[in-house]
Specification:
Blueprint (H helix, E strand, L loop, with lengths): L11 H12 L1 E5 L3 H5 L3 E5 L7 H4 L7 H18 L2 H13 L8 H9 L6 E6 L7 E6 L9 H4 L10 H10 L8 H4 L4 E2 L1 H5 L13
Parallel strand pairs: 2-5
Antiparallel strand pairs: 1-2, 3-4
Length: 208
């Protein structure tokens, strides 16, 4: 059915999903007190799911062991291809930039006792002189209750409708331009989303 308000064939379910996605975005003070004092803000998202994570990803259904085995397999592939040091260096860069951090043993045990989901860590090779190897995550990693990607609210697909994109660009009162380099990994995720997107990566690749 056509939605007269939106002038499109959006279903009521898609409209509900759009509202969930919009309401999941917050503008908050920067977590660094010095930056927050200067008025710097962050965008934080708590990605909504189509299911209740406390039951869907409860501890009894943990995919922790699968994530551990995937990480060991990744280490072996990287060693075979001579990419282990380069991969570890990229992980270290992400930690220094604040994109990743290691959990303490206490934090790990607390997460494993509650609801959680592990996504698998991997890499891709790029035709780039600055970053030929890039660390990536796989949110489609298998889980007994379905992957994070499968259970995340998708919302409306807008990028494929070039006509609407162009019309909005010309007719809307404001246009926002972004520096893609600064946008990369610049959106913060909330505590619930973080619990559902843990990696298995040992500080010492040679300890397991």
């Amino acid at each position: 059915p056509t939605c007269l308000n939106k002038n499109s064939t959006l279903s009521l379910e898609k409209l509900r999903e759009n509202d969930l996605l919009k309401n999941s975005i917050e503008i908050l003070p920067h977590p660094d007190p010095l930056l927050s004092k200067d008025g710097k803000k962050i965008i934080q998202v708590e990605y909504p799911l189509k299911c209740n994570p406390t039951s869907t990803y409860r501890a009894e259904l943990s995919n922790y062991e699968a994530a551990r085995k995937s990480s060991v397999s990744l280490k072996n592939r990287l060693k075979m291809k001579g990419l282990l040091d380069q991969f570890t260096s990229e992980v270290d860069k992400s930690i220094q930039l604040g994109h990743l951090r290691f959990l303490s043993n206490e934090e790990k045990e607390e997460i494993l006792q509650g609801f959680h989901c592990f996504i698998f860590i991997n890499y891709v090779m790029k035709n780039s002189a600055s970053t030929p190897l890039r660390v990536i995550s796989n949110s489609s990693a298998p889980h007994k209750s379905g992957s994070i990607n499968a259970n995340t609210v998708p919302g409306e697909t807008v990028l494929t409708n070039l006509y609407n994109i162009c019309m909005n660009f010309f007719l809307k009162p404001y246009v926002v331009l972004y520096d893609l380099l600064k946008c990369y990994r610049s959106i913060y995720t909330g505590p619930t989303t973080n619990i559902q997107e843990c990696y298995f990566f040992n500080k010492s690749w040679h300890s397991y």
